[in-house]
Design brief:
Layout (H helix, E strand, L loop, with lengths): L1 H24 L12 E2 L8 E2 L6
Length: about 55
């Protein structure tokens, strides 16, 4: 039984990783910290680039 649980956990982790990578390749927001120079508005599925003014 324990072996089956470990297998299922691994299988779920692989599916989640594949989904995040696919979404990131398509330009979507895959979660985590937003990259410098981009902003994420609540409820939107894509990141928007913002210009950062330098002194």
């Amino acid at each position: 039984m324990e072996l089956l649980d470990q297998y299922q956990r691994l299988e779920i982790a692989l599916k989640l990783t594949k989904g995040r990578n696919k979404k990131a390749k398509e330009g979507g927001y895959a979660g985590g910290r937003v990259t410098f120079g981009y902003t994420k508005q609540k409820g939107e599925k894509e990141l928007k680039y913002i210009m950062v003014m330098q002194k």
